[in-house]
Amino acid sequence: MAELNLSSGKSGGRQTNKLPVRVDLTALVDLAFLLITFFMLTTTLARSRAMQLVMPDKSVIADMPVPASGTMTICLGKGQAMWYLGMADKPIIAPKLTFYGNDLNKIILEIRKQVKATSGRDMMVIVKPSAHSVYNNLVSTIDELNITQTNRYAIVDIAAKDIALLKQKGVY
């Protein structure tokens, strides 16, 4: 049984003969556990949020040629991303490293403006996750593409040429 004992003390130099007050806290403890149990059972946990990703039909992909001058490739490495404009053999903008998040956001916006100004078309972004990148890197990259309102992007397997470039940059 839980109880609270208050001792009698001296007041003003004379001693009082009051009986100690006993407060039974058993009901309060029971009530506390009932409330904790109630709130634990009635609360809703955070729901998982999933991003909708629409993949095109394989028959339609063959009919969608994309020029190299309008294609940005982002290779996801260990801790950093490597990006270039064009093809890996003959890049229009040489491969460069950047960090995920805000840095990648600025680069996507800058290259998109440049492609729009030169070709008048929207930019296509190819995302290539490597074996050493983590899932969070892919999610962060897709988030940045959605934030910058890049509507044309694809997630593909990384090629041997891209792996060689990542090794040269030291992020593979």
Explain what this protein looks like in three dimensions:
The mean pLDDT is 84. The protein has helices spanning 26-42, 58-61, 102-119, 135-147, 160-169, and strands at residues 3-6, 10-11, 14-15, 21-24, 71-76, 81-86, 91-98, 124-129, 153-155. The radius of gyration is 32 Å and the shape is elongated. It starts with a strand and ends with a helix. 36% of the residues lie in helices and 24% in strands. The strands form 3 sheets. A 5-stranded mixed sheet has the order 7-6-5-8-9, with helices on both faces. Strands 1-4 form a two-stranded antiparallel ribbon. The chain folds into 2 domains: 16-42; 69-169, Nucleotidyltransferase, domain 5 (2-Layer Sandwich), CATH 3.30.420.40. The chain is of the alpha/beta class. Strand 6 (81-86) and strand 7 form a beta hairpin. The protein has 5 helices and 9 strands; from the N terminus they run ββββααβββαβαβα.
Quick rundown:
The protein has 172 residues and is an alpha/beta fold. Helix content is 36%, strand content 24%. A hairpin with a 2-residue loop joins β2 and β3 (14-15).
Low-confidence runs of at least 5 consecutive residues: none
Structural class per helix/strand content? alpha/beta
The main pleated sheet reads as:
5 strands, mixed
Order of helices and strands: EEEEHHEEEHEHEH
Judging from the principal axes of the Cα atoms, what is the shape?
A: elongated
Strand content: 15-25%
The CATH architecture of the largest domain is 2-Layer Sandwich
Q: Kindly identify the CATH topology of the largest domain.
A: Nucleotidyltransferase, domain 5
CATH superfamily of the largest domain: ATPase, nucleotide binding domain
